[in-house]
Fold these 2 entries.
Entry 1:
Amino acid sequence: MIKHLKLHLTGAVQGVGFRPFVYNLAKRLDLKGYVINDTHGVIIEIQGEEKNINQFLIALQTEKPPLAHIFSQEIEELPITEFQDFEIKKSKVVGKKEVFILPDISTCDECIKELTDPKNRRYRYPFINCTNCGPRFTIIEKLPYDRPNTTMKKFKMCPDCQKEYKNPKDRRFHAQPNACPVCGPHISLYTSDKKLLTEKEEALQKTIELLKKDKILAVKGIGGFHLVCDATSDKAINTLRERKKRGEKPFAVMFKNINQIKKYANITDFEEAVILSPERPIVIVKKKPNTDLSKGVAPHLDRIGVFLPYSPLHYLLLNGYGKPLVMTSANLSDEPMVKDNEEAFKNLSIFTDYILTHNRDIKIRADDSVIQIIDKKISFVRRSRGYAPLPIKLPFKLNKRVLAVGGHQKNSIAIAFEDKAFLSQHIGDLETLNACNNFEEVIYSFLELYEFEPEIVVSDLHPRYYSTKWAKTFSKEKSIPLVQLQHHYTHALSLMAENQIKKEKVFSVCWDGTGYGTDGNLWGGEFLLADYKDFERAFYFDYFHLLGGEKAVKEPRRVALSILFDIFGQDIPDVPTKEAFEKSQIELLYKAYKKGLNAPLSSSVGRLFDGVASILGLRQFLSYEGQSGMIIEGLYDWTVKEYYPFKIKNKVIIWQPIFIALLEDKSDIKTKISKFINTLAQIVISAYKQKTNGEKLGLSGGVFQNRVLTEKVIQLAEKEKIQVLVHKKVPPNDGGLSLGQVIYSLSNS
Ligand code: ZN
Ligand code: ZN
Ligand code: FE
């Protein structure tokens, strides 16, 4: 019997070789009709024998291209009609765009095979790609995803490329960035003062030579420029740190293959799989001791961020050079990553000796993603290239269109409609003018790409966040309501949303650096019993003073001093904290402490980590945010089971006994640190048991990027049969706030 069906698929179905797949499948099953991209996804009409049609429907799910994600499928049966053949029709643009934009995907194995085959016409061509791999999000100017709407539009395909592009049986059928050495982009090597040295293969060879001489180069990648140098050269890395004014913040290292990574790091099978995944994130893994990797790559840390080449240019560079390379975002600190050629010549000459660039423009900036494995699951430190802007599925569907502007640090924004939240790539800290401009640029690129008109805008409660101020203005300009959400409640909401919580309350432990509290104090050690409507601040860490306000965030010694004043008054014991100050400074700060001058109150657990780091003499000043936590994590000993005493009085976690016991403890530093972390884990369980009645236990906020703390809490919770929720799709840090903002306004509209 002959049947005629019309299918409407939504999801990530464009730019992934979906139409050619459908075409070949229809041909194989002798079906007639057509396939076409529209703004909502893909429409297919098929007509033919019923049994073939059924096979088609099965194969659509089981044989679809690796990068395709079908989110929904509608089928309607139509009367029999006349089709000559099966064809791929040209895209049409009607109505609102709701298609998924795919992230950039690393070079596939088949392309690597061609890249390294001397007989292939793309032998050593740094822009080889196909429908299964290559740039996507970073080259899109508008939808639908077709070549004229990308930065590839200026390259006219040569007859050979054109043939592939038009041949449904070819791997490059409708591969929008398709290119070859004859017709496509190419690389050029410049001095940092913009003198062209050489091009193409010779530029690559010259780059390798320069790296061998400990030079620092800026290399244009997929989502922006990297600063690149030999990861085994102390000289190169010291120079890079000096020029970049980057104290001790670790650099990511790219390796030529997984075996090389194994020479430098101890990795688990799961970590290996994540490193090899097509998204190619930076994965933070355990460093091996005594390799030739420069100590300057990740000072004082036992871990290191590793990744593999994800563009053909990386592949050629790493294999040509042989040794691992530092690859760090090319930017001034707190500024966005440089992405345009002119911008590179203007801003990168202070860092680099040479610039290896190319003439395919990057439309949308995207930093590398960073992942660590916690409790055998993916935990994002930064969700960006390879993942953004794929949507996060929300637990329910609502009718309002939301724009969420995120927080202040590690900012990401989101737009959401129906049951999907589209989180942006990592935008970063909104500390500089350029960072704030980039924040606006990303918002407008999302609004334009998705032709999105928000009906509500959501921000943090903090009055001084740039994102909050921006949202206020935007809400006025567009005459749409603004919702301002408490920071830690937003962390809890984000966790609930990605874990598909529908209505129930979750006991969420939200610990981080600082966030603005409803009482005007700086929260950061919160236990919230929350649902989508509201939250109760069930417990919090006893307030302490941040001596010097903002300064205390960068100087653990100030937090420790405040803690010591609290316990001992002015007469503090002889600990490393004391030595970190002049005597007169201590007297002055004591007065400020007494009067509460420039000493805001905080309940931040992140700061308590700093306090411990100072008292134990590990760190008096921070070189980067989260440093003390990372050092402490590296010293944790799983064989230590003891913990320090603590008190929970009414709603307050009394921390003084913890520090008194820590100061009296005669054991070694590793034991003390382990006991401190164990204490925090015990506090979570103890608070949970006091307040709850079988609710789930949630862990959110930047502090839960601490692997050992999170794993310890999970271990204790499992013993008590408590169900724990952690972040797996968005970062636990402020990069995940925009998701929490979205879900609140959706569930309360
Ligand atoms: Zn490929
Ligand atoms: Zn060509
Ligand atoms: Fe936070």
Note: Residues 590 and 660 are 19 Å apart (CA to CA).
Entry 2:
Amino acid sequence: MTGIYHAPNPDNVKSRTFAPGTEERALLKAALEEVSNQKVVIPAIINGQEVYTDDRFEVRAPHDHSLVLAECCRVGEEGLKEAIETAMAAKDAWEMLPREQRYAIFLKAANLVETKYRYFLTAVTMLGQSKTANEASFDAPDEVCDLLRYNVYNMDLIYNMQPKQDLTLMNRLKYRPLEGFVCAVTPFNFASICANLPAAPATAGNVVVWKPSTNAVLISYYLMKIFMEAGLPAGVINFVPSRGSDVSNYVLTDRRLGGFHFTGSTRVFRDTWKMVGENIDNYRAYPRLVGETGGKDYCFATENADVDELVTGLIRGAFEYQGQKCSALSRAYIPAKLWPEVKEKLLAEIKTIRVGDVKDFRVLMGAVIDRHAFNLAAEYIDSAKHDEDADLLCGSYDDSKGLFIYPTVIQVKSLNYKSFNHELFSPILSIYVYEKDEYDKVIDHCANSSKYALTGCIYTHDRNEIAELEWKLRDSAGNWNINDKPAGALTGHQPFGGARGSGTNDKAGNITNMFRWVSPQSIKENMLPFTDYRWPSMAEE
Ligand code: NAD
């Protein structure tokens, strides 16, 4: 070693506007055409080799039933077990590779995402996930690049954290990757999470078995190909589209499981945690379980809120990406004094929102991800039409062309009403209007009633209220915003993650997450070894 490389402190990617007449708009439209007209067959990728199987499913655009984007091959027990063996075979060489060589692969992948594949990945995300141009590009390329770069930067900070030295002792901390392999299981709603969950442990020197979501398999496949183009050695990350239950049965129970990097629903994380618990005697080490999961994210407004700011926060927080962000706003507490004005402006603005095919750049909202999500939202909307405890202020659905749920507002008359408490992951905002004498009661409800604690926001311009709410709501959210919607965290600026049923709060893209993928070893070397076992106190008087 002739020099020590230091990873750069990254700048976040600058977003494009896609305004009419811009070059980026033309490039994105061309990419949308390209992706719409190709129907790829997605293989598994194990040991760097494409694996085609007969167990296949179709990938369709959620907003257009007729648009088939891909066909995907699934692997079962045999493929998953092969992926584990392959990962373990690749482990020593990957772990021994100098850190800057590892960094270079992920920094190059970020560069490829930001340049060569920028518009292509945005188009895949738009069509596969039904995101608008802005939502898709915030995700891929922007957040994908940010996370890949921050992982490298944070890993470098960790390697540089070394213990105190003594005159005669040399002390070192080695940040070893975990013994065994890491299993990464990714959700449908963010390309950035699809990239990050396998990449973060791999950046720390781990080998990975990666199961993508069925509903995000196309973007995941292209991200995997970019990792390979950037020079990722065969076997370090193995891409295995498969059934969730197979991953639980054949991967999570393997005695070499070193870690589980998960994002998705609270139910699946709890089930997998139980499964690991039941198998605890079989593992070589305690597997690290890192999960970012569900939310029931809130807005708490006081009489000192600005109505226009509040209404904008309600709309953007609840309806962008059809409410399918884990951080999306879904319950709001609004003071009775402001309600008439808030209601009037909110419903008037909602009437201006376009919902439809995301290839039409004027829409704010596309479709929800799949039939299950559509049916669940439709059931809650229908129920609100009849339930005594609810008034449906606006909202409807239509699945004739795609899976469209229109922006929905339910005014609930009871804090216990179901839409006010269950995660729905769709554009349904439930609002409770509170009287002045209920102030303490609703703060207590907001702070303590939910099994989740992911994101929340308050709207007020009174400093005493801000301080009071910051204290009283301190355990209600891992990301907490003042006079801003609860969604929208930027890597490196607002580290993201929640507690309670919302996850282990390890904060994606932050140094705290990277610490979970290493097992430190403390090494002491004695430069003047002892030659006498006797302590001075033992000498004769
Ligand atoms: P999901 O739980 O349905 O699926 C997530 C992944 O788990 C998928 O790949 C799925 O195939 C897999 N899976 C399902 N059953 C499994 C099993 N038994 N064993 C192993 N894997 C299994 O979640 P989703 O619908 O993809 O995503 C939406 C959920 O994710 C919401 O609850 C949302 O709040 C949450 N989410 C949270 C964050 C966060 O940072 N907290 C971010 C994004 C999404």
Note: The chain has a mean pLDDT of 98.
